[in-house]
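Consider the following assembly input.
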Amino acid sequence: MGNPLLLIWKSLFDTEDDERRDRRATLRVAAASSAQATATIFLILRRMRTPLIVLIVIFAVSVLGLTLIPGVDPAGRPTRMGFFDAFYFMSYTASTIGFGELPYPFTYSQRMWVTISIYLTVIGWAYAIGSLLALLQDRAFRSALALQHFSRKVSRLREPFVLIAGYGQTGELLGHSLDELGRRIVVLDKVADRIDGLEQDSYHADVPGLTADARDPGHLAVAGLDHPSCEAVVALTDDEEANLAIVMAAALLRPELPVIARVTSRVLAERMQAFGNPGLVNPFDRFGDHLRLALRAPASYQLLTWLESGPGGELGARGTPPRDGRWVVCGYGRMGRELTTDLRAAGLEVTVIDDSPEDVDDPGLLVGDGSDPWTLAQADLDRAVGLVAGTDNDTTNLSLVAAARRSTSSLFIAARQNRPASAPLFASMRIDARLVPSELIAHEVYAQLSTPLLWRFLREMPARGDAWAAALIDRLTQMCGTRLQAMWKVRLTRTEAPALAGWLASGSARLGDLLRNPEDREEHLHAVPLMVLRDGEVTLAPEGDFVLAPGDELLLAGRPGARRALGTTLLVPSVLEYVVHDRRVPASWIWRKLTRTPVADATSLR
Amino acid sequence: MNLEKVVFGFFVVLAATLNFGFFIGDIDDPVLHNPYELFAAVVVNLIATVLKFGDRTQIGAFHLATSLVAVLQLVAAALAYGYAEYVSTAGMDAGWTASVVSLSGGALLANLVSVVLLVVETASFHRG
């Protein structure tokens, strides 16, 4: 280490070594955790020492006694039992099988000794078996076994999987939607009941689950953080610190993995941003964005909720929210604060009601119980245009909504639903915007993991304005009705669209030509291109004269039939030839040779 | 003084001495080899093996291995003895005696290794 030049050389060109060291660190973490499991099993085996020694001693004493005590054979001659006879007799007597007195009927002195040894051996067996059963019931032993079982299952996974830390309502929703999509998941949670509940859940695939604290990198490593097939880590625990710890562990041990974390506090969000670039989901912030979008651009909001609802979703009614006026926000917790900021940023006046606010410097703050009619009267609800029922208590929120509906029926109402059990009550209340934090997070994470293109589209779409969104909704409803039928992705590469290679390279590949019906090219396919992604740049809702290039990714919405038709066009060269150039070209090689199709036109036939 | 160490050392040494007592004498003379001594050796060796359960150190693992070898050899010797006494028509002749005693001789070697390990462990413990 004496030569500084060598040191500099090493630090400049040693990046590969660094990677290898990272890898080793991860492996060590996992190994330490599984070694812990075997250690527990060894320690617990030690507890079997005493019962086993007691059993051996009792057997030895009884057998020895039987060989020493004299007996008689049927002829009346004195004889002694051999070791084998004695051991055989004790074995069947101790295990209460009892074949009788072998080889000859016993003398009284032998019977006295056998009586004593029967009681001794019964005690010995009871002690040994009792200890063994107690051992199997032991919590430490069981969790050590569960850990071993779990790590074996995870290390055997050969398909890509998503590691979900925190399996509450959100984790469950996300797990089920990923499972529907055919993706494998691995689950970690601190609460044993939730992991035990995995067995009753109806998953298509086997879901390995472990009761462990996800803050421990060792547990994350056992759950597959260092597994080559791990494709993403999702941190959904209730504890924000724990989510931060998970983001840290993932960013330091596997920097290349995408990480998505649930977070509600801005401070922690910033601390997470310091570790790589994790996807952060803040349900209150997102709901605030949604609400602001609903107020500012009703059509954009309508499009957003429609596309987010997934296949089969019905187009919702376009709301007519109050553009200006005063809002009443009940509950000044995390959600209340986010919404108040968002509403004020939109230039609206806000009155806040809370029974025990922590900082009182808000100008529009009213201290009092929101469900109290007197407080509501004080907040002058009659002349407000909108109400946000955002406390963390469902009963309070429901009574707030009911009271508001009674006083002014035209009020725009946003409400927060905390528990899944209250869903039917909230659904029957005719609420304009409903926030279910666990569902919102699950939808967001799902959108990010399942179809990244849709996620990108939803992020870029609001900037285009309300009129643009309304036009797109019109196009979509004309093409495929008010029910969202299928949404799919097409990648124009050599493997996924082999027929297109030559046509794309020609530079005149117009999108409108591609989206024609292979049966009758005059007819347009019932599909709307939502977005084209090229080298990280997006084009929203491209028109028919958009020129495609190799490697483009398309997001389309439309009928399933259109999806099949487009698939044919992408795969079969002769179909493409008809669709694009209106030329009927023979599909088989022999027929093509016979009809002498020019080579220039056959570039796309390759 | 640690009582656990006393018990452990006692059983390890006793296993070796009993084994030696059975082994010593002309290899084919059944009179010189007492079956009760073989029985005692089997039982004490079993106890010594169970005492070595659950020690995760390197030397502990080796201890357990030597004991398992000794038990295996002694049980084989006892089975051979039982076969000669009860099944074989020849009874406990010179040939059977020789095979029983030589099997116990193998066990004696394993027991000696065990004693050596015990001594090494004790000596290194005092120095370290």
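Residues 10-17, 599-606 of chain A have pLDDT under 50 and may be disordered. Ask yourself how this observation constrains the way the partners meet.
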